[in-house]
């Protein structure tokens, strides 16, 4: 088995000042922001071997190795997140081979793992921003990470990879800053927020907003909205994990501390499993950050951001820049259905962009991209090494069992 990254550490990039504040797409501004990031491998002399990785909804900058603690995070940095979320994919000899590439992953602006977010301290008040922290769009996150690349001296990425909602940001980066990347890998993602996703996300918003402790987002001096955040996570969890897998993981154990609700008593192993998932999530995430990221997902509109009328015009930017896309679908995905990636491929082909579509056959649902590196690694390596140019020409469609 390939070696991992071992002990890793988060770094911090500070952007903006009183005289040059960071301006959000909403028109709001902050005098300065912080972007927390980690790097694996080394930049080469030309600095052209960098891969930028965008994480999923509740992910973080910690994509590989083991990070025991992060400055300012405290108890939220639980054992569940101390091992990198893509550790199976990053390291010597792995899909993102750190003997060849320098992999960079940053926590989203608005997050709760070291980047500026609602739980960060407002220097004007000495208290957390809470409700006053601006709404965040994908274009804000992308712009903050482009600034990080500038800071690191990286003019053009070898590749950008985005998993789940991270794929939305990868598309944003490729079409807003086409000259900054060569290869684009959207993994289990889409072009837009579908009606079904919108309903599921709005249910989660309502769960948090209606928690009696939410207080409009200003809860840091009192009880956290634990019930609302746990319920939101339970709503989302069933879209991330295939139902058959949930049933298997739930097993036969129905015992759960505090399994007695106001009237209803938990009486089934699946109920106990979902309650456990919700409670566990509350200990490691911030409700305000969860709302900021869900809002970012709900408001995602790459056509608006790029100032174009349709997806063919959007991807014409990629065509002109010579991008190559490797798009992954998961046939059992209930979060971003395979039809969404098929729509993306259709738009890329209409724009005559170079692209490859891989359908992964898995029983694990959306979470397959976290758990089954053997289904993705050969295609990632093939693409990063540029072998698609020789074997497939400009476009193609393939499937893998």
Distance between the termini: 22 Å
The profile of the biggest β sheet is:
9 strands, mixed
Integer tally of domains: 2
The CATH architecture of the largest domain can be named as: 3-Layer(aba) Sandwich
Helix content: 25-40%
Shape: globular
Beta-strand portion reads 15-25%
CATH topology of the largest domain: Rossmann fold
- The arrangement of helices and strands along the chain is EEEEEEEEHEHEHHHHHHHEHEHHHE
Class by helix and strand content? alpha/beta
Could you characterize the architecture of this molecule?
The chain folds into two domains: 11-193 and 300-400, Alpha/Beta hydrolase fold, catalytic domain (Rossmann fold, 3-Layer(aba) Sandwich); 197-294, Orthogonal Bundle (Rna Polymerase Sigma Factor, Chain: A). The chain contains 13 helices and 13 strands. A hairpin with a 5-residue loop joins β2 and β3. The longest helix has 15 residues, at 138-152. It has 401 residues and is of the alpha/beta class. Helices cover 34% and strands 16% of the residues. It starts with 10 loop residues before the first strand and ends with a strand. Residues 392-401 have low confidence and may be disordered. It has helices spanning 138-152, 166-176, 195-209, 226-240, 243-250, 269-282, 287-298, 302-306, 311-321, 338-350, 368-371, 377-384, 388-391; strands at residues 11-15, 22-23, 29-30, 33-40, 50-54, 102-106, 121-122, 127-128, 157-163, 181-187, 324-330, 354-360, 395-400. The strands form three sheets. Strands 1-4-6-5-9-10-11-12-13 form a nine-stranded mixed β-sheet, with helices on both faces. The protein has a two-stranded antiparallel sheet with strand order 2-3. It has a two-stranded antiparallel ribbon with strand order 7-8.
